[in-house]
Structures are given as C-alpha cells and as structure tokens.
C-alpha cells in the first residue's frame, strides 16, 4: 500500500458514492448511462470472484464488497426504482461491441489460461472501456450535469493515481503487471478530453456543454 | 505465469 494506491481507491470510492447520492437525492438518473453502470457491475463481479478463493486483507475484502454492492445498487436504481427517469434513447451504445472483443482479447492475452485468471483479465480490459457508453451519451446530448462531471472526474482520477502506484511499485517492490498497466494507460487516456473540459469549464463554475 | 493471489489491487 502506498499513498497513490490509497488515494486512488478513495477516489474510486468517492466517484461511486457521488453517483449513488446524486441519483438518490434527485430521485433521477437523467444523464447517467445505465449501460456503463451495467459494465462496471460486470467488471467488479468478474474481478472479485477471488473473494471466494483467497483472502488478501480486511481492507481488500471490505472495499471489494462495497464496490460490488454499490455497483448493483446503482444498476437497481437506474433500471428499477427510478426507471421512469432513465434516458434510454440517448443511452444507445451497443454493449456487445465492447464485451465481445474484450472477451476475445482476454482469452488471447492473459497471464494464465485458467477460469479465474481469464475473468480477471476480462474485467481489467472491460473496465478500461466501460465508461465509453457514458461519454457517448454526453457527446450525444452535448451536456452533462455538474454533479455527473464530478463523478467522472473522480472515476478518471482513480486510474490515473493507479498509474503512479504502479510506477511506485515497480521502483520500490520490483512489481509490475503489464496487463493492468497497459489497460490502465488506455483507461486514463480515454478521460483526457474530459479532464480538459472539467478543468477549463466545470472548475470555473460553468456547466459542461459541448459545442453543437 | 502469474500467481492468482498476486491480484492484490482493487
């Protein structure tokens, strides 16, 4: 554990809680891509199956349970409780275009051709692109609520902090996981355009809206 | 070959 890893995890947690609270307080999931949330629930489910096979630490177990629980709670709020506010027409990204290639890649490029390892690899690859339906939705509607942009900022910041964590671990522990690193770089790059808009617009008190 | 328990990150 190092400071980048810890702040990365807390940033991830902040993002998840911000989204849940936004939906709960406003009683609405307008502007939120249910498809991205389904992908994140799938990511956590396939990655954290090791909860059943190996114990790493209390911190690790508790955080995994919180992430999984919140992911399913979010999906429940969007597709069940506040279904009437869900903007399905603008959430038109085709999930199979992500899940199928990612599944194929996980079978081809992995550390070990075993069931759990392939699911872990699948989750790493899928997480790197899981935000695309949300970004696609924002590009379609041309705007995002400010609270939604805070969610995206913390979600992007988390993987960027993990990049520093991996640099740290490489130098001080000699540890590196090429699959996680490459996917993490891809994931962070996908947020760069958004980070720019966040800093230049949202942090200056303006709403995030894209030029028509 | 990776040790499966080495996935200690979240």
Word description of this protein:
Chain A has eight helices and two strands, in the order H-H-H-H-H-H-E-H-H-E. The mean pLDDT of chain A is 96. Chain A is mostly helical and 212 residues long. Chain B has 10 residues and is low in regular secondary structure. At the A-B interface, helix 1, helix 3 and helix 5 of A face loops of B.
Secondary-structure element order of chain A, N to C = HHHHHHEHHE
Number of domains of chain A: 1
* Overall 3D shape of chain B: elongated
Total of DSSP H or I helical runs spanning 4+ residues of chain A? 8
Query: Major sheet of chain B: size, sense and barrel closure?
Result: none
| Multimeric organization | heterodimer
- Tell me the total number of β-strands of chain B: 0
Radius of gyration of chain B: 7 Å
Strand percent estimate of chain A:
under 5%
Question: Share of helix among residues of chain A?
Answer: over 70%
Ranges of chain A with pLDDT <50 over ≥5 residues?
Answer: none
Subcellular location (chain A): Cytoplasmic vesicle, COPI-coated vesicle membrane; Endoplasmic reticulum membrane; Golgi apparatus membrane
Transmembrane segments (chain A): 65-82, 119-139, 151-172, 178-199
Keywords (chain A): Cytoplasmic vesicle, Endoplasmic reticulum, ER-Golgi transport, Membrane, Protein transport, Receptor, Transmembrane, Transmembrane helix, Transport
Membrane topology (chain A): Multi-pass membrane protein
């Amino acid at each position: 554990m190092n400071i980048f890893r810890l702040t990365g995890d807390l940033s991830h947690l902040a993002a998840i809680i911000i989204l849940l609270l936004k939906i709960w307080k406003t009683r609405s999931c307008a502007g939120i891509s249910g498809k991205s949330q389904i992908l994140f629930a799938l990511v956590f489910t396939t990655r954290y199956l090791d909860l059943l096979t190996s114990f790493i630490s209390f911190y690790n177990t508790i955080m995994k349970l919180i992430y999984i629980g919140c992911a399913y709670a979010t999906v429940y709020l969007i597709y069940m409780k506040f279904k009437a506010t869900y903007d399905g027409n603008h959430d038109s990204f085709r999930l199979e275009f992500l899940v199928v290639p990612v599944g194929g890649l996980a079978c081809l490029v992995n550390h070990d051709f075993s069931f759990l390892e392939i699911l872990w690899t699948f989750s790493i690859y899928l997480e790197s692109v899981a935000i695309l339906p949300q970004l696609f939705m924002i590009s379609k509607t041309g705007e995002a609520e400010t609270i939604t942009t805070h969610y995206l900022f913390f979600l992007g910041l988390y993987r960027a902090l993990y990049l520093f964590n991996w640099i740290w671990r490489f130098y001080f522990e000699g540890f590196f996981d090429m699959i996680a690193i490459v996917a993490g770089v891809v994931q962070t790059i996908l947020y760069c355009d958004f980070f720019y808009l966040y800093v230049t617009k949202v942090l200056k008190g303006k709403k995030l809206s894209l030029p028509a | 070959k990776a040790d499966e328990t080495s996935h200690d990150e979240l």
